[in-house]
Amino acid sequence: MMVKCQGLVKYYRKTLAVDHLSFEVKKGEIFGLIGPNGAGKTTTIKMLLGLTRPTAGKIQIKSGIQIGYSPETPYFPGFLTAEEVLYFYGKLQRLKKTQLVKEISIILKKVNLIDYRTRKIQKFSKGMLQRLALAQALLGSPDLLILDEPAAGLDAKGRIEILNLIKELKEEGKTIILNSHILHDVEQVADRGIILNRGRLVTEWDFRQKMINLEISCTYDSDILEALKSIVKRITPTSNGFEVELLAREQIPDIAKMIIMGGGKIYELKETRNLEKIFLQALGGVR
């Protein structure tokens, strides 16, 4: 176990920010931390980092590990270059000069900033600052990475690059806690996760159980419905068709064929994301 939180409570004066929160993060996994604004995610991260003390509860982090942190709104002195920023943070970690110089080049390549290594930070876009924040989190090859909105401000290409990098870091054996409001991003890379609301754990979710949800607008009769029940995990009739939950995307053509061969007509077939639905249900947005 890399991280274990038990009954975390955090008050800011009379305001309750985190309310008896418990969860565990296993070694080598990507753990998603999601919830609306004000859910307590940032406060939880601050407690994990030791930036604020819990009012009550217990945090256990594996002894002897290094932690890398990428903040949601990074700030670096504008007069420094990307290379100088990483050198400064590396020296704070007491990394040897020869090791640091080599590591800076490798990391800047990883986050696609190698061509901007000598550019002043004041000329960086928000997306470039996010990538630089991730780069400084990687200094010293930490065992545990805490990433707070690492894809914020990035365009679609930049987001894909960061998500691919996060996957690569997991393959290297890193443990990652990922805080993001972009549900699709979390669903793409996380193994497990929790949803928070008003400081409380609303639900847990295992992203490794990647079920495929389909909404199908169609005409059908009871025979088609019964036939589909034999091949799908779940089927729920709706006002204009039904929703089905599949174990594999390869089943989609078979389902469409069964509906048409059974005399039905398909007007629309679209895939819906599990996490989005679970998120809305957990917060009371879907009944």
UniProtKB/TrEMBL annotation:
It holds the Pfam family ABC_tran. Belongs to the ABC transporter superfamily. It comes from Anoxybacter fermentans. Keywords: ATP-binding, Nucleotide-binding, Transport. The keyword Cell inner membrane does not apply. This is ABC transporter domain-containing protein. GO terms for molecular function: ATP binding; ATP hydrolysis activity. The keyword Transport applies. Residues 3-223 form the ABC transporter domain. InterPro entries: AAA+_ATPase, ABC_transporter-like_ATP-bd, ABC_transporter-like_CS, P-loop_NTPase.
